[in-house]
Fold these 4 entries.
Entry 1:
Amino acid sequence: MSTIQTNAIVDASGGNTATVNGISPLANTTRFARNLIINGDFKVAQRGTTFAAATSDTMVSDRWAPLIGGAAGGKIGFTRSTDAPEGFKYSTKLDVSTAMSSLASGDFYIFKYKGFERQDIEHLNFGTSDAKQLTLSFWVKSNKTGTMYAELQVPTSSATMELSRPYTINAANTWEKKTLTWIPNTAHTPNSAENGAGMYLYMWIASGSNQTGSPLATTWNNNSNRTTGITNYLDSTSNEIYFTGFQLEVGDTATDFEHRTHGDVLAACQRYYYQIGGASQGGDGFQYLAHGFADNSSRAIHLVPFPHDMRAAPTFVCSQTAGEFYWRAHIGNPTSPTATAIPTLATSTVRMARVDCNSSGFNTVGAGLFFEQKNSVNTFIAFSAEL
């Protein structure tokens, strides 16, 4: 497999060294993961692996979603691909399905990492003289060469403050490793709760003139000089882009990608989203979803404990056909009542949720029930605490 590794685009004014948290660059620590990004190699895909014409904020992989402005919506499909550089199993493929040969001033398309919790980036010391340099490394492949941008954005009390870094896709259809370094953010403090978003990562795909002012900004600020000279990767349905191996770390030097176990990454992702059932979870269409009991003759209630504390009390998501849900119960209850309405969330905390669902009738109030898929592998219930 042909690959190219390119040199970093480095602003050395920050003065930080490559030492991470006072330890050697390749060491691991239970206090801070070396890689601040969760699921940067796209190994976890709770919601599925294919999303056609994804709309803004549709999660296309755990922790990743498009952010779209103006008329750029629905122009790209996403697929988890096994086309990946050596050392990786997966990448995410962005495939242009509807071309935009020209963009209006407010149009833009971004592949977005959904955010870093403030409490997980406090050691970066944003807004102080001790702020840290940050280095992003990742792999990219495209059939179209050109200039693209990665951006870090910090929400503050007055505005979002961002700083972009350009990189070039030099060779078509070739995996290239990119390394970009950000100067310390000494002036701007995140304005969020501890479990709120303290920073975002934006991978720009296309941008209208509102963000392409010149010259390119070189300090953390809120301005329009964010994507100067960016190539329009929406201009042809032949265009496709692959990404993998995202790593954001403290210092001015990129270290090798921090491969974590699937279980570790899944647990980190389930802090933000937890799904039971659905085609992405496998199974034969009769999978168990939750246990509960008949609260009255027409409603069952179910307690769903989460495998890990979620970021916040979650909202509820489920498949949208009532007939996809049913219960197994003891003989005479009846044995297989079918839902007459889609499930609803009665209450939730960071550790558990109560889900209610109606049926045409339960014969024994108080009887225990198993809530299940009804012969559809697509049936699911899920809980979202995304940033």
Entry 2:
Amino acid sequence: MFSKGWKFNMFNATQEQWNKSMAAASIVFLQVAFSLISLVMNEQHQCYSIVVFTYSLICLFSFINASYVRDFDALQVNFTPILLSFVGMFALQKTFDFMLLGMVITMIADSYFALRYKDT
């Protein structure tokens, strides 16, 4: 769980892992969308939005597997979305925002798929 990200090289997944590939793509693009909209629309939670945006770009880079970057792989381990989910939930307790809620839901979905992921 803490050594490998579940979205690594899912772009080149086999036909049997097509559902995992589509789940990874939708999670990554939703994270990018919610974090960008949150950055543009309001000034609340900008730090969290920047972190989620950076994480989602790293996941997108790993999803496509353009080239292997060890530091990106280290940042994309499955523990990161779990930690970002908890941080987002604490931020939601302070102030409610729909974009923040979207980021937290996608992080929770990312964490769920990370916990359930198997290579086969």
Entry 3:
Amino acid sequence: MSVFVEKWHEVTSSFHLSIEETTMTLNVVSCLLHLHVKGRLLDHVVPLSKDEGINFMVELLGSDMVEA
């Protein structure tokens, strides 16, 4: 795991390996960690306002208001 951490490139949000640059998709993470992904990613019908989106990021993802 530490090898992957060393290869992470923050600007492109990808891993720079000796053979190529690669990104981790939700499907890859699901396969590697044996996690079942169910349902829709966003299941709300009414569009969110910017303030509602920020509140969701703070409440559900643990982000702070500045980062959100």
Entry 4:
Amino acid sequence: MPTPLIRSTAKKSHRSVKRVEAYWDAAKKSAAKHGFKTKDPAFWAYTNAIVQKRAGLREKLTFKEFLNLGS
């Protein structure tokens, strides 16, 4: 995850940078497990959405957002 995004997420969620980095690593593994490829923008959108959710910055991924990840 880019450092500015890690710092921003950590600051907004009141969590440590180290914890947010751990969320990012786990989310990347989850995205790959679900068939997303790193060259696909949906991979990064999915990964960021998971990190945001785990950090408590979003309630849930809406069905519409989920559908848009694949396009």
